[in-house]
Amino acid sequence: MRSSERVQAVVAGHTCLDMIPTFESAEADLHALLTPGKLIKMGPLTTAAGGAVPNTGLALHRLGIPCRLMGKIGDDLVGGAILDIVRAVAPELAEGMIVERGISSSYTIVISPPGVDRVFLHCPGANDTLGADDLAYDELSPARLFHFGYPPLMRRMFIDRGVELATLLSRVKNLGLTTSLDMARPDPASEAGRADWRQILARALPYVDVFLPSFDEILFMLDRERFDRLLSEPSSGDLSTLADAALLRDLAQQLLTMGAVIVGLKLGTQGLYLRTSPDPDKIASIGRGAPTDPASWADRELLAPCFEVDLVGATGSGDCTIAGFLAGLLHDLRPEEVMTAAVASGACNVEQPDATSGIPTWSQLQQRIRSGWNRRPVILPLPGWRWDDAGTVWRGPTDGGG
After folding, report:
1. What is the pTM of this model?
2. What domains are there in the chain, each with its CATH number?
């Protein structure tokens, strides 16, 4: 039997080689650390396949979800390194990778000193050329779920007001798969940063069942004025600490109105926020990854706090949170359990410097959750919210779950 016949999830989108230098200095001021002309003693270089495709795909694989990766690379040294890394985990994961001769593969140098938010030096390479016609749609047919990540870092996905992105997602949706989409925050001064993201989302989200961007990404795209205002306020580099329940609800409602069915907003150190369609029939119609009890997913508003961990590196934390969410959905868990699996996966990720090596098996993850793992406090104002009976997630005042 070919591996594609047992695939449950296909992960497509942005793919690169991550190069992560190990900092021996614990200076908290990145500007002081990277002073021009200063010699900085470094530790070993960690290399890993990065971007949404390897990060989310390899995390899903580690969580026991059979999957296929469909990222685009060149036939150069960097592309070969990406394939070697993926094949070392499991050869079948690389069978769907798109290799094009004569183009450069993407790479990212991750500057991530201890206690300091990351800085990325990124070459988009082949990602800028990926289009709807690049995907092998016949290989999608056995899968239940399709996840696409980082269109703001892929030029063909955001030019022409997102026509290519909507075309790709609509083709996948027509095959009966549950579709999932993640974002990335572009440089405001870049071509992607100047794109009309409200219009791009309005075109794409009718073909998206599960939308899992971060709070800062979606605030940038839907309310640039407020984004700029919050960015000017002190937040330790984590804009999500400046959010409130009303703003989260408003952003999520806009995304549901545009067409998404399940919306999760990643909140960094504050956890994960969930808002879903109030219509159980709409939940039931999201494709082959739909829950068997759609009513338990309808009209939900939840917030799952992060778990306590010793932070080593945050590379890929959002992608691993998504992997935990999608794995929980494919395991047909209730939304409270899916949210908990998502933040638990993200927590395991940050205990290692690279994007996926900290992810355990699904059974190990569930055992750690049941072991009494402590949660981080939530500092967001949540008037009217309450803990659910199991003490795992916060329930919003508009939550319709039983």
Report:
1. 0.92
2. 3-12+52-103+127-395 (3.40.1190.20)
